[in-house]
Amino acid sequence: MTDAPKETLLFVDDEESILEVASEYFKGKGYNILTAENGRIATDIIAKEKIDCCFTDINMPEMDGLELAEHIRMVDNTIPVIIMTGYPSLDNTIRTLKNGVVDFLIKPVNLNQLEICVKRVLRERQLFIKNIFLTKEVEGKQRIENLNRELTYKVDELNTLNRIMTDFTTIGSSFDLFKRVVDLSTELTHADEACFYVINEAVQRPVQVARSVAGGNGNQQMLADSSTAAGDVHCSGTMNISQLILDNCEEDKPLLVHENSNVRGLPEAIRSLMLVPLNIRKKVFGVLAVSVLNGDIRFSEKDLYYMAFMTNKAAYAIENIALYENIYENLFATLYAFVGAIEARDPYTEQHSNRVTRIAIALCQAMGGSQEEQDILNVAGQLHDIGKIGIRDDILLKPGRLTEEEFRSIKEHPVIGANIVERMGLWDREKNIIRCHHERFDGKGYPDGIAGEEIPMLARILSVADVYDAIASDRAYRKKMEETKILQIMYGGAGTQFDASVIDTFRSLYEQGVLKEIIETKP
After folding, report:
1. Which residue of 9, 10, 41, 368 has the fewest CB atoms within a 10 Å radius of its CB?
2. Domain 174-322: which topology?
């Protein structure tokens, strides 16, 4: 006796590989599988075939997943729709639920997990269809009410999880991350206090590094002295919990206790407490302690689940921050080594990039530039001549006048430098500044011959800094110019070679002695 054929599943995604994997897997499980590359094709299939369940991506050409879900709801509201996306957001979550979507999965989705979801959704669909015929009966009404409560719970849960995921995607430093962990803990659980402790092989006692107190003067507090131990902190709820943390963190499991729990070391002031370990590479790095000191609130298993989910996301964020900082530092070290190699080829230009960078930042700061713009100039200034690594020594180091062909070769270095930085895939604004640092305000520069405000403002600043250091320093083909000649070139270039507003600032800093000090300062 053969088994009855299973239900028909429709997978809609513009990624062919996802369709192929899902189709092969579920066909092997006995399901009838249909696939579509976008929502429009899916609507044609739904019009011709009997569909039991639909899985769809959100972002697709011609008709996206949300439009498809609305179409299915209008045509046949018994077909369950599950959204799969790699870019979850609170807005999309709410919109999908409004469109009748029964679940929201985050890519990449585990196939076994997907099958469990299919079985659950199909089982719920059968119940839903049955409820359609029982809506006039009391039992049917009760089931609908239960579904509504479950849906409300699901919305709240999705909102909370999405809030946690969103909050940890934009944090750029460990300081901000620990601060966000404790702030979000008190906010989500309505706790009186949350503290984060570092506890690993390097420290013998838990070290408190962040604390948040709901509604108090200590709210959103970050401890400046990282040497403070948990047992020494004047912290009303978590005071003297060092041993409690040490006794429970080794098992790598979260702990939920209340005032009447028979737990050794629980301070009398605490009514309810959660201790949640934060693990990095399967080792405990720290512990989040969240406590209730007053009132009737007591933490639930759901609160513990949210805190465990949050520390898990925080651990990923910490690893990503550490990895990014390591890659970033290594990348800078490599690029600066290139610049050092270029300057080592020509002893007359040694430290040229450092001086140009300092001059450019001084000009930018005096012109009211933001810290972000100064940081951009710090990168672009150090790397502005990196393209010279592609210029032959006999041209780059030639002591005499360059031929037209040799000068054309030299003029390629801004483009070479911009291409080097572009391949790193990091700094678009810096790349444009490097490319444009030899453009002239009157349009007679190179490599593109752009003029005026077409040239990025920071490139106009860097151009002034570059020319000034070039003529005020010794070069392979000449000694540094006399001061009167330097000022004649710089001031006389206002409005032609240089942006006049930058030259005005240059004049002010020069008269204050700031620029001359930079030029004459030894590394």
Report:
1. 368
2. Beta-Lactamase (3.30.450)
